[in-house]
Specification:
With 337 residues, this protein is mostly beta strands. The protein folds into two domains: 183 residues, Spermadhesin, CUB domain (Jelly Rolls, Sandwich), CATH 2.60.120.290; 144 residues, Jelly Rolls, CATH 2.60.120. It is 10% helix and 34% strand. The chain is built from four helices and 19 strands. The strands form three sheets. Strands 11, 12, 13, 14, 15, 16, 17, 18 and 19 form a nine-stranded mixed beta sheet that branches. Helix 1 packs parallel to helix 4. The protein is globular. The chain binds 2-acetamido-2-deoxy-beta-D-glucopyranose (4 copies). This is CUB domain-containing protein. Pfam families: CUB_animal. InterPro entries: CUB_metazoa (IPR058698).
Length: 337
């Protein structure tokens, strides 16, 4: 085959795979590594220790090497993730215990959550360090703090390939990419949901106890297939701090984020572009994009962006005013339509 034919052939494979609603599940990693160890495989579990009574250092670092120059993302799945919660003063931050990877720091309870971290080995970023700081030593094996994090590495599709002719140079690699292409997140997404329906929630929601971590601003993305036009959210839990209330607005748009920057005014919200909240017995339907307070409890939100991936943003500020303006978080069921 000529180069161009080979490229078209692989493009054909991609479009076939990514137009299907069925997502191939990720394999369960067969290898566990513990604090201080390095990984050189595509799928690996990070665990505190691999032997009973093994000492856990206060700072536990795992070094995950990209398995090839073509890797562009790593996905961390928190099978178990239970660290101390964020300290509330002056706003919820991960101080006593934390997990840091790239510029993301998390703590509290995050079982079942995941994050994506970008990497570019061809620009010299050959590994990612995952660092977990705990008080294990102080507490003498405090059984409360535990984790099991699965890390998966993905190559990016042709359009995002680090080298223009990657497909031609490494056909077998591209075949592998086809296997996991449904798991590659759009650029810049901290979280990516590739199923047609499911649940999305804030970090350290902790079954409705919270609080969410302050000073975060990140994108949550959902897989959009060719015929999909909208995404629907059904809030199960929704309490995002303070809403500046006016007669007709209890937590939409300017109530969540003032047009003029105002020191000391809360700015915790979720941004859902081009959205309609369908109203409730006490509230009229509204068209809005920012939601805060308890505004969308017992409503359904439908977002119909004209194109591009389905994407919402979470924003938390550097204020904390409990108990009257609770910062608990959100849990949405979502459905792609
Ligand atoms: C991480 O850094 C990038 C730029 O390097 C920035 O855009 C992003 O907001 C940061 N993420 C967080 C969670 O701070
Ligand atoms: C998605 O929808 C299907 C069919 O309605 C349902 O059986 C399944 O439980 C849903 N999955 C999630 C994660 O909500
Ligand atoms: C609130 O809504 C009512 C009726 O929809 C309207 O008459 C009134 O002007 C609104 N008030 C404000 C402050 O926007
Ligand atoms: C989303 O798009 C895919 C393929 O384009 C289609 O098979 C699926 O039915 C769509 N989902 C809905 C709920 O319309």
């Amino acid at each position: 085959m000529k180069k161009i034919e080979l490229i078209l052939f692989f493009i054909g494979i991609f479009s076939e795979i990514s137009s299907s609603q069925n997502v191939r599940p990720l394999p369960k990693p067969l290898i566990n590594i513990h604090c201080g160890q390095k990984s050189f495989v595509r799928h690996v579990n990070l665990v505190p220790n691999t032997r009973p009574n093994q000492n856990i250092p206060a700072t536990c670092t795992y070094r995950i090497h990209a398995i090839s120059g073509f890797i562009c993302q790593m996905r961390l799945d928190f099978q178990e993730f239970s660290l101390l919660p964020p300290e509330p003063t002056p706003f919820p931050r991960c101080i006593s215990e934390s997990m840091t990877v790239g510029n993301v720091t998390l703590c509290g309870v995050n079982n079942g959550q995941h994050i994506y971290v970008p990497i570019n080995p061809l620009r010299g970023e050959r590994f990612l360090d995952v660092t977990i700081n705990t008080q294990q030593q102080l507490n003498n094996f405090n059984p409360r703090s535990t984790w099991k994090i699965s890390v998966h590495q993905f190559e990016c599709p042709l359009g995002q390939a680090r080298k223009g002719n990657a497909a031609v140079q490494a056909p077998q690699r591209q075949a592998k990419l086809g296997l996991f292409s449904d798991w590659v997140a759009p650029l810049g997404c901290l979280q990516y949901f590739n199923q047609p329906n499911g649940t999305v929630e804030s970090f350290n929601l902790n079954n409705g106890v919270g609080p969410y971590i302050g000073d975060m601003n990140y994108a949550i993305c959902f897989r959009r297939l060719r015929e999909n036009t909208s995404i629907r959210f059904i809030p199960m839990i929704f309490r995002l701090g303070y809403a500046f209330t006016t007669a007709n607005n209890t937590g939409y748009d300017d109530a969540c984020y003032s047009v003029t920057p105002t020191i000391g005014r809360a700015e915790d919200f979720i941004f859902i572009p081009n959205a309609i909240a369908d109203g409730s017995t006490t509230l009229p339907a509204v068209r809005a994009s920012r939601f805060c307070g308890e505004s969308v409890l017992s409503q359904t939100i439908t977002s119909s962006p004209p194109g591009g991936p389905f994407m919402i943003y979470f924003n938390s500020d550097q204020l904390y005013e409990v108990p009257d303006k609770e910062e608990i978080g959100f849990r949405f069921q979502y459905e792609i339509a």
